[in-house]
Q: What sequence folds into this?
């Protein structure tokens, strides 16, 4: 017979991992803020799809840096955001937003496009 509520029993297996993490942080074996700081320092870029075009169509990012790319689809139809150059392929539903990480990229230009409206949805990302 189990007297603990189900919600607590489901999380019991996580307690050793949590205790180990706290012990490691308490004894200074790992800098506890290093991971958080690295993620917060990432650059971010937002691209909006509207009228089957990208805005901005020619964004710039710093070379050699990992960037969080957010794509907002303001259209009423889905789009497939794609780049062979920086290896992204993601469907963005109508009125939806997706985020992916790209890079770090070497200095240069990288094409991206909307596969479902390729005649108008074109862009070039520049890493400087």
A:
């Amino acid at each position: 017979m189990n007297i603990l509520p189900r919600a607590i029993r489901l999380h019991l297996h996580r307690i050793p991992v949590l205790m180990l993490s706290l012990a490691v942080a308490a004894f200074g074996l790992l800098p506890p803020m290093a991971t958080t700081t690295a993620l917060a320092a990432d650059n971010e870029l937002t691209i909006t799809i509207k009228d089957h075009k990208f805005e901005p169509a020619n964004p710039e990012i710093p070379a050699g840096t990992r960037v969080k790319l957010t794509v907002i689809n303001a259209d009423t139809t889905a789009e497939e955001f794609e780049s062979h150059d920086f290896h992204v392929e993601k469907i963005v539903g109508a009125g939806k937003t997706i985020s992916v990480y790209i890079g770090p990229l070497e200095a240069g230009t990288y094409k991206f496009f909307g596969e479902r409206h390729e005649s108008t949805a074109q862009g070039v990302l520049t890493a400087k």
User: Anything to note?
Assistant: The chain has three helices and nine strands. The longest helix spans residues 15-26.
